[in-house]
Write a structure and sequence with these properties.
alpha/beta, Rossmann fold, 7-stranded mixed beta sheet, two-stranded antiparallel ribbon, 9 strands, disordered C terminus
Length: about 290
């Protein structure tokens, strides 16, 4: 195990580097935006709903432009980074722990001639390899759950944000009143001890001087998204079995079912958090 990664991160790194995972995500999600979508209907294509999440997040970043630097934590295949770079002209550091995903990210960036704007970095968001105050925006979609030390992740984000800079992220979370142990099947599959919660992120961000400027609750889309992925897995299973192991597919179907059930029972939540680091000299920060 590399000293650069925590145990939880190493588990995620090995998983996303696997041929099974790379094939599954490229065929089911399309190899672009591998995160939860905002759905207009319960039969909408996964790629379309996932891209709607990205474009909506872009709409919330009024300050983004060619002079801004963005850090994308857990960038995956880089679909979000490419959207922001091509739409707003900003420079993006796409940090991700999977070398396999990063290689695909770099290849697609070159094909779209965006490699001058997007710098893909093999690294951990628990140890961000950037100087203090380096970024105007720190952004992440559905990646923080893979950390075994989320308080450190928030400390690192606060460190690399410029004064006045913003954090915007999504993450599958347990609800603030989720009973103990009901999410154990999900935790066991991810090799985690717990998930974050809205209260946890609010407390950690406040402790690091980040002030909340908005939260959009989109919990209903979490169970819908995983149900859509499960449905597509069943539909594409004959094709997937040609290149993905039976053990992986069975584990994936079981895991997706747990996410669907947890969401429908009200144990899981998902939404868009926005925080801001106060400007220098700001004593009474107002939003």
């Amino acid at each position: 195990m590399s000293d650069a990664y925590s145990r939880a991160e190493q588990v995620a790194r090995n998983y996303y580097n696997s041929t099974d995972a790379d094939t599954f995500y490229s065929q089911v999600w399309g190899g672009e935006d591998i995160h939860i979508g905002l759905y207009s209907s319960d039969q909408e294509p996964i790629f379309d709903a996932s891209r709607r999440t990205v474009t909506h997040l872009g709409d919330l970043m009024e300050e983004l432009g060619p002079q801004q630097r963005m850090l994308d934590l857990g960038a995956g295949y880089g679909g979000s980074a490419r959207y922001f770079a091509s739409t707003f002209g900003c420079s993006v550091v796409a940090l991700n722990l999977s070398e396999v995903e990063n290689a695909r990210n770099r290849e697609i960036n070159r094909a779209h001639r965006l490699d001058s704007l997007i710098h893909v970095v093999d690294a951990s968001y628990e140890h961000i390899p950037s100087e203090h105050g380096a970024f105007d925006v720190v952004y992440s979609q559905d990646a923080f759950l893979h950390s075994g030390n989320r308080p450190r992740v928030i400390r690192e984000i606060a460190r690399v944000l410029k004064p006045g800079g913003r954090l915007i992220f999504t993450d599958p979370m347990k609800t603030d009143r989720c009973p103990d142990a009901v999410l154990q099947p999900i935790l066991d599959r991810l090799h985690l001890e717990t998930l974050g919660s809205p209260a946890f992120y609010r407390q950690q961000c406040a402790a690091n001087g980040l002030q909340e400027i908005g939260f959009e609750d989109h919990s209903q889309h979490l169970s819908l998204h995983y149900a859509r992925v499960l449905e597509e897995t069943w539909v594409k299973e004959p094709q997937l079995r040609k290149s993905v192991s039976e053990a992986y597919l069975e584990g994936m179907k079981k895991g997706l079912t747990h996410w669907v059930e947890g969401g429908r029972k009200g144990y899981l939540t998902w939404g868009i958090f926005r925080f801001q680091k106060p400007s220098e000299g700001s004593l009474n920060f107002q939003i």
